[in-house]
Write a structure and sequence with these properties.
The protein is elongated. By secondary structure, the protein is mainly alpha-helical. Keywords: Membrane, Transmembrane, Transmembrane helix.
Length: 63
């Protein structure tokens, strides 16, 4: 499935949640979609858990 199709499906799900459930449902679906996307990236191996916990060092120096 291409990213365009996946984005279209996600957009349609958000639209249905917003229309039938209101703004709270829209936010819930968006948050759960973002969490699912992140977990999927971890499982695919595209994202390393250390990416979230590393310090922002430049040239070995801390700021």
């Amino acid at each position: 499935m291409s990213m365009a199709v996946a984005g279209m499906i996600a957009g349609m799900a958000l639209a249905f949640a917003g229309y039938f459930g209101g703004f709270g449902a829209f936010l819930l679906v968006a948050a759960l979609g973002a969490i699912g996307f992140t977990v999927g990236r971890f499982l695919d191996g595209d994202l390393d858990p250390g990416d979230f916990f590393r310090s922002r060092e430049r040239d070995g120096r801390r700021r």
